[in-house]
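User: tokens in, sequence out, please.
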């Protein structure tokens, strides 16, 4: 632990980096996967389980928590760490993506966004200043700037307008965040799938000397090769000594290939959402436990895993739970998926340390292709 926010690169292998973020509430081993705790909970999991699987940090969502139960209420109840019983680091996103994608009527201006709640239709305003204020009330350790995230494909003029607006909002977020010892505010690189805009955004944010940088606006509909090309463009334009966070990504393959391009932190709802829908990520590919072929399969998902959900229950039982609509099915598969993601991250970190990340990546992807699961 550290009294200040600090990032150290401990080993490199090509562009892949192993490091650690040190801060008062704990150390985050990177590359790191952050389970998504949208509304103060990682769905279908106890947070003690999430910690035991190896998660050093979880993510909370500003938009959802401001609407319910309300940031001021969470603050009165001791902040999100105490409210949710998670003593370790928490990153909160700015709420910008949800404002754009989930809200009803919304109006975007230089000042911010006025929108209607997707829950009850009530009207709210989200400015850069209010986003940082809410994240401060929640008490998160890493806070994200408010940005405008638009879906791809989009015309370059529109992408550039949103990128420039996001840069101006980043300056306002930085001013509002001020100096908070032991905490950090990250900027978010935008620019769609245009390399020159990505570089312009990254260079402008770098000049603000923030404590970390995220790459946003990817995994929003574009092919994987486009995402990876944007990372190859963006990462070299960001400071080597600061953490890099790829927002909302992704599949195990997305993570593996993004680490190879210099990304340190990830978050995604995929492992939890897939688990609730009967899908399991494994060392030998992705399984759909709804399929009838699992009905009499006595094998566990992976006998080599130390996760009880992975090796204590048969595929036949999991199939039965999913087909019967039993909540336990989603719980066990979510537990398994998060275990697999954290095992993957641990393997990645060790491979970088050992200098054989490329070999590790080839074998991992080859195993996924075998379909032996």
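Assistant: Sequence out:
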């Amino acid at each position: 632990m550290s009294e200040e926010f600090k990032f150290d690169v401990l080993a490199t292998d090509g562009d892949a980096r192993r490091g650690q973020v040190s801060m008062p509430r704990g150390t985050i081993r990177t590359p790191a996967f952050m389970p998504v705790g949208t509304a103060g909970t990682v769905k279908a999991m106890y947070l003690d389980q999430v910690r035991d699987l190896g998660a050093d940090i979880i993510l909370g969502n500003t938009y959802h928590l401001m609407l319910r139960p309300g940031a001021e209420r969470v603050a009165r109840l001791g902040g999100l760490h105490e409210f949710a019983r998670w003593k370790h680091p928490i990153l909160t996103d700015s709420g910008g993506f949800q404002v754009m994608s989930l809200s009803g009527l919304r109006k975007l201006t230089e000042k911010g966004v006025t929108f209607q709640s997707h829950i009850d239709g009530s009207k709210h305003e989200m400015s850069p200043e209010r986003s940082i204020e809410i994240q401060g009330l929640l008490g998160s350790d890493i806070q994200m700037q408010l940005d405008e995230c638009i879906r791809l494909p989009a015309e370059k003029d529109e992408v550039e307008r949103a990128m420039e607006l996001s840069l101006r909002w980043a300056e306002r977020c930085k001013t509002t965040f001020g100096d908070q010892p032991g905490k950090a505010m990250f900027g978010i690189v935008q620019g769609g799938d245009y390399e020159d805009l990505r570089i312009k955004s990254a260079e402008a944010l770098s000049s603000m000397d923030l404590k970390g940088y995220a790459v946003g606006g990817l995994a929003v509909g574009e092919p994987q090769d486009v995402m990876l090309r944007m990372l190859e463009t963006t990462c070299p334009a960001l400071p080597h000594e600061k953490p890099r966070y790829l927002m909302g990504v992704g599949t195990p393959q997305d993570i593996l290939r993004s680490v190879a391009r210099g990304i340190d932190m990830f978050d995604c709802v995929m492992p939890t959402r897939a688990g609730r829908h009967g899908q399991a990520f494994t060392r030998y590919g992705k399984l759909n436990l709804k399929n009838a072929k699992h009905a009499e399969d006595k094998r566990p998902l992976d006998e080599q895993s130390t996760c009880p959900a992975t090796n204590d229950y048969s595929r036949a039982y999991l199939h039965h739970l999913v087909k019967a609509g039993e909540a336990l099915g989603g719980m066990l598969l979510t537990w398994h998926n998060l275990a697999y993601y954290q095992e993957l991250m641990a393997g990645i970190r060790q491979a970088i340390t050992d200098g054989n990340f490329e070999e590790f990546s080839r074998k991992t992807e080859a195993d996924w292709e075998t379909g032996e699961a």
